[in-house]
Input
Amino acid sequence: MIRVLLADDEDLIRVAVAALLDLEPDIEVVAHAADGPSAVTAALAHCPDVAVVDLEMPGLDGIAVAAELSRVRPDCAVVVLTGHGRPGHLRQALTAGARGFLPKGSPGWALADVIRRVHAGGRYVDPSLAADALTLPPCPLTPRELETLRLAEVGAPVAVIARRVHLSTGTVRNHLSAAVQKLGAADRAEAVRTARDNGWL
Output
């Protein structure tokens, strides 16, 4: 039996996926979690072979859960499910250690097949997302611009960012302004969204 952990903050989806997987003769759902931290705790407590995690969850998202499980439970393969996957998310998930990436709109039988594949040591990436990821443009931002934009993402004021990166406030403003301009964004928040969607942050 392949032991599976399901993590999704939407109860209806989690219960429905569990019911589908319970129809499979070689798959057993051994634990449920409604947020990222609970998913990690459940993985440590129940030792699943595969963790199926939603991309967007409270506490830790699916990518952060994949990264944490690859550290504390490297024998547990992670499959990330997403309602609206973007190529950048795919890149981040694979970098974090996920072995599968599947849209929630996939056919019902597809998840069981992906679980079997990653449990056997393989990988699975939705073909349309993989094709989109291959055509992503390279990041136009310098490492410093990315670093300041990453800190701006959490709402840190310019003065705080400047202290953290050991630069003057004027230089930080210049980096943020350059990032906004290079990404064709209207403001800092839009620049962060663009960089996040493309997998650069």
